[in-house]
Amino acid sequence: MKPAPFTYHDPRSVSEALDLLAALDNARVLAGGQSLMPMMNFRYAMPDHVIDLNRIAALSYLRCDDEALRCGAMTRQRDIELSAEVKGRVPILHEALAHVGHRQTRNRGTIGGSLCHLDPSAELVNVTALLDGTLHIASRREVRNVSIGEFAVAYMTTCLEPDEMLAAVTLPLPPRSDGYAFVEFARRRGDFAIVACSVLLGLESNGAITRPRIAISGLGHAPARAHAIERALEGEQPAASAFKAAAAVAAQLDAMEDAYVSAAYRRHLARVLTYRALEQAARRATEAAHA
Amino acid sequence: MPDVRTIAVVVNGIPYRRDVETRTTLADFLRHELRLTGTHVGCEHGVCGACTVLVGGRSARACLMLAVQCDGEEIATVESLATEGRLNPLQQAFQDCHGLQCGFCTPGVLMTLTEFLREHPDPSEADVREALTGNLCRCTGYQGIVDAALAAAKRVREGA
Amino acid sequence: MIATGFGASVRRKEDPPLLRGEGRYVDDIALPGMLHTAFVRSPYAHARIGRIDTTAALALPGVHAVLTYADLPESVRRQTLPLLVPHPAIRQPFMPYALVKDEACYAGEPVACVIADSRYIAEDAAQLVEVDYEPLPAVSDCRAALDAGAPRAHYGDESNTAARFPVRAGDADRAFATAKHVFRELIHQHRGGPFSIECRGAVASYEAPTQTLTLHVSSQGAHRIKRCMLDMLEAGDHEVRVITPDVGGGFGPKGSFYPEYVNVSVAAMRLARPVKWIEDRRENFLATHQERDQYWDVEIAVDADARILAVRGQLVHETGAYVPWGIVLPWIAATTVPGPYVIPNFKLDVLSVFTNKIQTTPVRGAGRPEAVVAMERLMDRVARELRIDPAEVRRRNFIRPEQMPYNVGIIFRDGRPVTYDSGDYPACQASAIEASGYESFPERQARARANGRYLGIGLSNAVEATGLGPYESATVRVATNGRIVVYTGATPQGQSHKTTLAQIAGDELGVEIDAIDVVTGDTGGVSLGIGTFAARTAVNAGSSVHVAARAVAEKAKRLAAGMMECLEEDLALAGGFVCLRDHPDVRKSLREIAVKAVGMPGFSMAGGLPPGLEHTAHYTPDRSAYSNGTHVAEVEVDIETGAVTIQRYTVAHDCGRVINPLVVDGQVVGGVAHGVGNALFERMVYDEHAQPLSTNFGEYLLPLATDVPRVDLVHLETPSPLNPLGVKGAGEGGTIPAIAAIAAAVENALEPFGVKITEVPISPQRIVELLGNHALGRTA
After folding, report:
1. How many structural domains comprise chain A?
2. Which of A112, C144, C196, C372 is found 20 to 30 A from C443 (Cα to Cα)?
3. Across B48-73, average pLDDT
4. Are residues A199 and A274 in the same domain?
């Protein structure tokens, strides 16, 4: 399982990378390599040109201000995991990262790489959807910003044109008082989840749920923000009855099917994990309110 | 015409300068160009961990890196652990606790644990098992490996 | 007293180089001028091969040759690969050619062989080989293969039945006719592959000066590989040498003979350069033997007290596209069913069926785990129906130790009646019961259920034929410089032979293991050998080493007695010397004795002794030595997700006398991990055209360190009377009862919901399906 031959490029700046993308046919960018290299080793991917982004320091940054967490696409998953700022201000991202692959893969893997690989249940894709993240796409021609919904066009297919690359992602900070939960079901530790469910919610002074957000991944080609559930939960007390109702709606969502996992099981997991995530997020919101 | 680059890389403290075809993986470079055959290849798709090395001190799957990406990097392989043939505490613990049988996954496991124990000098069994999820072993059932890791951590804490 | 002798938990000699990264596995071998190989493999499970155009591939710079069937030497074209265990019950002994001749019968079957400067270039060239494939209908499921209208795995064959044979004892039908209770189970068992972390591989080099082909191959039996090579090449015994270096796991399938070994040899001879082939993981999924589907339709007849009257049924076993091990695998499965129980009447009809998939051959446990699942599911069914504790049902049916040796009444694959030599099954189960907290479990279970948690416990027993013949070889030699070496045909892949065999030899020769080198798996070292598989080495090689070392010790004393002019019975061996017991400083070194033993030119040999301080033994077991074990698994099932967590795992294990307890423990725990994999994770998925879908470690799941529990081990030792050491095999006892115990535990956890487990592996999805609405849990 050796890669097919290619011409290797290692640009030192974003500008150089964009020039290469504009000029070359059948080119792939190489980020952490944890997804592209296996595909190249299997020869499922046979690019004529590999544009290694690892030398572009400007693509790797993690900046937190009052509004958002701003990540360069080449920021290593491990660095996000270790970031005290992330743990403090976007704890759901920190929690999700514990499920992402293994230490060896997080050391090299990048947030941009995960977003562009677009595995249906990838944790980072899910959290980006939950936080209404903005993806910043660059090319020689223009810079454009898209949501995850616009970015994920089909199964493991992004909206990126051949001359475009993902440069950065902006994740608006959730309210400090929001409870959060990231729950997934995978066959083994570190595996891609079959289904994952993330929740953010706040509590009013009377204890009612406010501004709930739910992102469920593993059903369709991209994580779905379950807007119907969100609307139904607004104003409800965070009790088992509300969680059950939400879970029942999650079980109705369309789900894909393959040789390993049935649609019915995915929907069932969506139901169960929605309940668990809501329960955990509500508990955390309550604790935050008392603190 | 093959695409070739010259790279300068430090492996186990020794600098090398070599021409490599750009598609050569780091694992193949270490094994066949530098003849450091301690790093093993088990799957070439980033799951089994037999090829784990430290790049810039961080564990990485050598089958998923290109040798050219390591220009200017410092790499540590299993061959860096013993000193003049003397096993280090982690290696010795593996022998004492029967932490290896066929030995094929072992170099990758040792490098994973080298990074892990450096950061977690007093781990629980659960912590060790979690740390090992990126390495497959088909012989030991992991118990001997876990025992070795815990024994090594203890010895190092006690100043062995 | 030898500190590192038999019974000592000595540290392994193998470890220091392996830990330093100085292991020498087949891919570590680099010979001057060595070339590399990639195979073109059939992408179809079943296809006729037409024209093969190698022009573009040959034109690629760095490519030295592209071989197809037509390019192979005449002796290779004329024969298919050897069927090593023929049997008259095999209706159609289909075997493959070294490269597909005209019909590929499984996806991955090798069609052409590319030799190039590097594996990278070889793969580039392999993509350029143009093959005309005419896809043929393929058969994927072994039960569907029995339908009259099913596609034939081999085109034009009259049926897909590879073999059919009965296993009989007593008169089962009569016993069933009058039985008080009869229960039937339909069980689907899927196992999987060995998936050693090192894939297969071989390096062939031909040396013109000695006209010798040397084949380094990652195998489980160098001598068997050589024998097959002699057949294929029609070479002289002196012209082929097979050496097995360090092996990164085998688990059975590396003991088979594969087409790739022939191809690299042919290429090496033709190109006069060494040729290496290293299997990559994708090839490993396609082209290394596995174990796979079995469908069991079995019934048990018991009396009112749950005593077994009879067991009968049918086993449909999938052999894949060919029959390289004949009917060994289903035969072992069938004859293992009775286990430790008194079963007066037994009738099993076995069908081995062709499909268009990679062949099935023994993988750790070799059909025995499946037999144990069948028998133990029946026992649990009896327990459930008659409302008796599962452990009690077993107790009422155990063969008792005073009944040993016990003739089960059926014939094993070694041609002998299945006769258990020794073992105390009631005591073994009792130990496991005690160590696992089985008796107090119902209370734990009840408390957990009150808290909405579902715990379950499962018990299984197994008896395992080990130490399979015909023999293993050992030459123990003291060289003329006093260094001691043991040559053996045993070929380890992690089983610690270099330590354990040194322990045995050291005991007889009076030296520590560091003074003994053990050389395994080299046809140049010892002329006959069988190999390491089927938990046979402790019995066979161990006994041979013991016999040979003792003979060397006796000879050393005889020669020393002559040299020292004293009586043999006054002498003892210690520390590399033969000395007077009463005056140990009066002694001769083994070196001096060895020199004496090879004689001096012009002088006749003393005392008419044969020359050399060495001896070769081929211990030949009369029949198998039977190990046994009891496993108790305690699991928790999350009924909302179907996830199964093993909370506690206990093994009571009896493999007779133990050479090295540390090594045996490692074998048992390692074996349990294979059982966990087969019970909960490992499944090779194919589509209906027999196209393999699970061809990577992301889709075929091996258990991780977080999936395999810590195993509590209890040892019993019932020595075997059949060999001089009293040992039995230990390599598979961790796997054989495991799947049954885990399946039983899951079923026990789900008892409130009436779920029955009749398939393995069992996935969370399947558990949720079986639970129906109960899986809604708190979301209901």
Report:
1. 3
2. C372
3. 98
4. yes
